[in-house]
Input
Amino acid sequence: MKLLIVDDEELTRIGLINSIDWESLGIFTLFQAEDGVSGLRIAREVRPEIVLCDVRMPRMNGIELVERLEKLLPNSAFIFMSGYSDKEYLKAAIRLKAINYVEKPLDPAEVTATIKEAYHCVRQNMKTVKNELFYSREADSSFAAALTQPYKDSRETIAVLAKELKIKLTPSLSVTSFVVKVEQSQADLNHMNQILTDLEIFLSYSCNRVYYISKYIQYHIFHILSPTPPSSPSMDRIGAFLKKCFQQTCAFYISKGETYIGISKAYDSYASAVSLMQSSFFFDSGTYFTPEKKIAVNTEKPGNGSYNRYVPLLSEAVLTKDLNTVRDLLLQLHHEFYQQKNIFPHEARDLYYKLFMVLEDCRQQLRLAPATEPENAMKLLENCFSFNELHEKLTQKTELFFEAARSYMPDNSTIFLIKDYIHTHYHNDSLSVRDIGNEVFLSASYVCTYFKNETGQTINQYLTEYRLKKAKELLADPGYQIADISLKVGYSNGNYFSKSFKKLTGLSPSDYREKMLK
Output
């Protein structure tokens, strides 16, 4: 579990962290905040299962903080820390769901006992919620899953589940399937349960029922069963409702399948929705695809491999620093791929990766400093949800390239090779001056002298600054643990990393991250 300590006294926070064996209590991740405002922000990001907070704090006291967190974290446990003079505050705490409070000065044994109680309380809450969702949704989900299989393979399962769910499989029963594709990992379980609940309420005003199943994290399937064939506008109102639900939180596409009569045709509705979704990547995020509404598409498929012509054309224009030609090529490229139905997303990603590599090769030939590391290009492009996002990444990289080309004074070839080797191998904790010297055919002693004379810095100074520059970039992403960042930038010793970072920036990595994320 995750635990958040909120207290304006740093010594109290550090003392708690160091005096208790948290892992033995089932707590494997600790966060800390200096007041209620910071605590609220951190809680929104990391969603701790247990919050241990002081009552008296500047900006937002503990009572106000827990009042807000009760809505945000309904299944978490809250513990107050208080002095004897805070009894009036604690009267207000009785109205809240704080399971206990511990008095200051803190007794580690008392805190440990209270954390154990909180841990079991959270486990019970989670079990209750899980059971409620499990028993209320399990049969529905199984039925929905059966409808995504050909009827000849799922006939018996459908019959058994329909009986259990009291679904009348009449000849006039109609099925319309909706498929929603979301940006990966953006629609969490709580959000999906809320959407499903809202949709059930929306459908309660009609005789329609919904059966939902999630597939491959990104895909959410909603089968709408109607006792009689529904009108197309009534189904589109459901599509509009789903669109409104998803557009509040994440990028998405929606496709509506054909409406079919008879449960034996349910798979056909689902298959038609899947078919409409196949080319969604090349359309604007938020597009709603329906069988009735034919969206304008680009029907001209390039000849075999012809889109690869952009690779040499872009290379030539970049090397000659012809920005106007580059921009024209990017416009042509966008026009060729946008709203395409005859190209697969992986074909576009493969081409764009090659174009990213063109910029990287040109950077090396022109001896420019890197803007984006080439080894991250594939991951960057794979994470693009839509073609427009993919194209925007390339456009941004191109503009940054020309901006760097206008302002950059290139190093001589040896200094460039030294820096480029560091940029490529900085994550290796065993990287040495000898390794760098071997790369440029110079001895370890001479390469140090040469680099210092040419740049005014030692190689170690440059390497340290570059590593910490990369650390700053990673600290801006709360998804990375500080210990992981230390390893990613070439420090096997986390304490040494923290000392080096603080020496250069004046802040510890955790303080720097908190300042960045405010």
Observations:
- The chain has four domains: 2-127, 148-289, 306-407, 413-517.
- The chain is about 55% helix and 10% strand.
